[in-house]
């Protein structure tokens, strides 16, 4: 360790755990990743897992911790009740819930709920990432896209979350690839898709035009039977179709903004979304997902008086 | 048996087999159902299965048979190559392919292919049902909806199949219910959905407006967490969402006709589609699915000179 830690920042998701040690300026002193997500912690206990990681990292036994993610779900460590939108990101971070009897000062950032009966929705974890992104992009009206298993789109207006929606695009890809008739088209292990794949772009462009998934899914199978579409291109077609339809649907709901879409993603999936947004005629501003969650956790620690304002 | 059979009519699907004995007027003399579909026949052989059923029914060993369905697939008894649309139903039935060495005169009705690169599609089995339906509804321009695992919509204009599309709505319901996060919402065994269920109607109406599936799927989960949507209503929501989106999408592709939508379905699924079409402001004409396939097989037998014209 190069410097004395002041606080631990923890992103505790369903299947993953990330822990950072931060100094008093919020800079990273040490970090580690583990697969002891919610599903593991429900059996082993949250406190023992966190205690062990912090001890292994040489942190003092009374080091405070700021936590985001599924640890705050009803079935998590302690429930951090949803904050309803619209709500300012500052108020959301400020509503972090202390965990009684944790042996140290642990607070969990709440998730968000949208109780609108026509578009009910929830998020947990992404609100912290979002706070990091919003600080980076500043004031004004922004549409933020956060790809993943359950991709979130969020309207952020001058630091307030005005509304959001979930498109389960990653999950759809996976269930269609594994459990539908398309498993014959994509093969046992779907090939990775590159953003410059012409089939990806073609299916994406079509789906961007009307957001229609149901009309085209079986077409992937038929294109294999009739036109010899191979397994790798079938995966590209499914990916282009689902991502294109998602972008059409989300921009229809939230409208287009004067500002570029803020894309919180990195790696291959981020690159596919960047290409698809470009095909949809949308300007894109990239934000790093890992950096965003860390900077959101630092902001949450400050907002709750666990770190002095930077 | 009340009368001497002249021909056997056979609907040989992926998982089911139906055999009728018909007299010289095309009237049913005897019938039976079995679960020896394509998947079983690939192992046991097609001829032995058909021979045994016909023998058990007391039919002569040289009784001819007209067959439709997956028995004509590449991986079936013998491949009956797809007929390309547009094509008249009379020509489609007339393209039945003889099975060499079957020990009796067996002919298999071909499936249909649509090679349009933007909407590639195939069907096998439904073309025969469609011929039965088309004979019933007569000339004019009709849009035919055939619900099922892979629901088919077909444009039939004066006895010619002008185009068709597949919406895998039944399959989507099943993979989302069993393999997505919605399995927590719907429970282990999704409840049957009634057409007068208010949640079914509400989600159907919303989806009819824009055909959007991706924007709403996760809302079923969120409505459970936030608004206490129960398991039975979650199944109703998913069903309404998928059927409503399908109708929006199919009517967008084919346009609305002056004639009612011809709904080839019976039982609970047919009732859901009838309600959904009504909610979409579409007039509906019902056609019985079982009767349709039988009358299509009779028409195919006549068209191929296996029965005298009725």
From TrEMBL, chains A, B:
The keyword Transferase applies. InterPro entries: DGOK (IPR007729), DGOK_C (IPR042257), DGOK_N (IPR042258). It comes from Aminobacter niigataensis. Its EC number is 2.7.1.58. Pfam families: DGOK. The keyword Transferase applies. GO terms for molecular function: 2-dehydro-3-deoxygalactonokinase activity. It is an enzyme of class 2 (transferase). Keywords: Transferase. This is 2-dehydro-3-deoxygalactonokinase.
